[in-house]
């Protein structure tokens, strides 16, 4: 979220992944004195991890959508077409700064479930796995490891309060990719090299779309997730309520109940998006607003910008060794470096 100290306005909206923000869209609006907020834009810039999601944001912008519409559409394609990286069962934060008004952060993070779950079920239905992704990661899988997702609820609040196009129209690109299939992205493939067996191998419905004849699909291979297009169509036409209180919610709750999960129909029905005051700061002539706590991305962004501008404020002198270490970890996580792939 950025605002210049002049009458030009820059509005951004963040992409929800599992628990972090991975993508931002920025609209460069026309001068306020000539155009009402959201009415017209001169340029659109979309930052995304794949061309598919960037194209979706551009398509919605050309259809008359504003910054929030385009960001949601791009994000919906991302959670549809980047298995392992993000999914419709996501959580995260959206920070919006309207051309007229104050910035706000919508907290749609994953919530701890179990409102009406018997105590003996806590701790069950999940097991720990270890993989070498990103230099080594321990995580939990299974129905008991899943929290209540807030991503779709946050999209809905953002759309209804700040968007301009109908809710269902934002789902068009995502539904098309879910129906026809989509190419496995490099980022997904890099993660799945490590996780395709330990994270996705235990459930046939998760394993099948990602494999062919027992082997992980390669970058560019087509992926079709069974029934995903039906679910997206239902959310597009019936509204997000079907995911939290309607037919989809009932199916989700029944599946979790049958497989040792903690999340219940009550957890889904009572999920609420929290409005938070963004973390605001000034940098190089710009006013910025980003995600506050409990998100960690916003304060990390502020710290990085401050250190770039004032390296003397670093707690210790910078040296090549820690920089090389962190760079290697980032390369390993993104698949862009020389860290060895699993054998």
Walkthrough of the structure:
With 343 residues, the protein is α+β, with helices and mostly antiparallel strands. The chain has one domain (2-334). Helix content is 36%, strand content 20%. The chain is built from twelve helices and 15 strands. Strand 2 (9-16) and strand 3 (21-29) form a beta hairpin. Helix 1 (51-62) runs antiparallel to helix 2 (67-81) and helix 2 runs parallel beside helix 4 (172-180). The chain is globular and about 55 Å long. Residues 2-40 and 338-343 have low confidence and may be disordered.
Structure classification: alpha+beta
Order of helices and strands: EEEEHHEEEEHHEHHEEEHHHHEEEHH
Would you tell me the overall average pLDDT? 84
Please provide the count of β strands: 15
N-to-C span:
42 Å
The amount of beta strand, in percent, is 15-25%
* Poorly predicted runs of 5 or more residues: 2-40, 338-343
Radius of gyration: 21 Å
What is the topology, as strand order, of the major beta sheet? Answer: 4-3-2-1-15-14
Largest sheet geometry: 6 strands, antiparallel
Number of domains: 1
Query: What form results from the Cα inertia axes?
Result: globular
- Percent helix, as a range, is 25-40%
